[in-house]
Amino acid sequence: MESNQETYARLRWACRRGMLELDVILQPWLENNFADLSRDEQELFARFLESPDPDLFAWLMGYETPAQQFSELVARIRRYNDGLT
């Protein structure tokens, strides 16, 4: 089983995307919220990051409705980013 540090490193690497806009949204969110995520939430975030960049961008920008399994996660990330601006 992966340690929390290994999980964090793997997810942090997965947050590096092909779109700078996603990097700017995802990496800070992970850095500031990882400690509060349960193991199930970490796994959900990992599955979320398997989605194509255009889908992630559309969901996070509110252009499209996210897949049902990711709707609460997307809402959390959007609330976090709204608080930063």
3D architecture notes:
This protein is mainly α and 85 residues long. It has one domain (4-84): DNA polymerase, domain 1 (Orthogonal Bundle). It has five helices and no strands. The chain has helices spanning 4-14, 20-33, 39-48, 53-61, 71-84. The protein is globular, with a radius of gyration of 12 Å. It starts with a helix and ends with a helix. The model has no long low-confidence stretch (mean pLDDT 94).
CATH class: Mainly Alpha
Largest sheet: none
Kindly name the structural category. mainly alpha
Annotated CATH homologous superfamily: Flavinator of succinate dehydrogenase
Low-confidence stretches: none
The proportion of strand residues reads: under 5%
Shape estimate: globular
Q: Helix segment count?
A: 5
Find the count of extended strands (DSSP E, 2+ residues).
0
The value of Rg in angstroms is 12 Å
Please identify, by name, the CATH architecture.
Orthogonal Bundle
What name does CATH use for the topology? DNA polymerase, domain 1
Based on the structure, what is the oligomeric state of the protein chains?
A: single chain
Order of helices and strands: HHHHH
Number of separate domains: 1
Distance, first to last CA:
37 Å
Q: What is the residue-averaged pLDDT?
A: 94
- Give the helix level as a range of percent: 55-70%
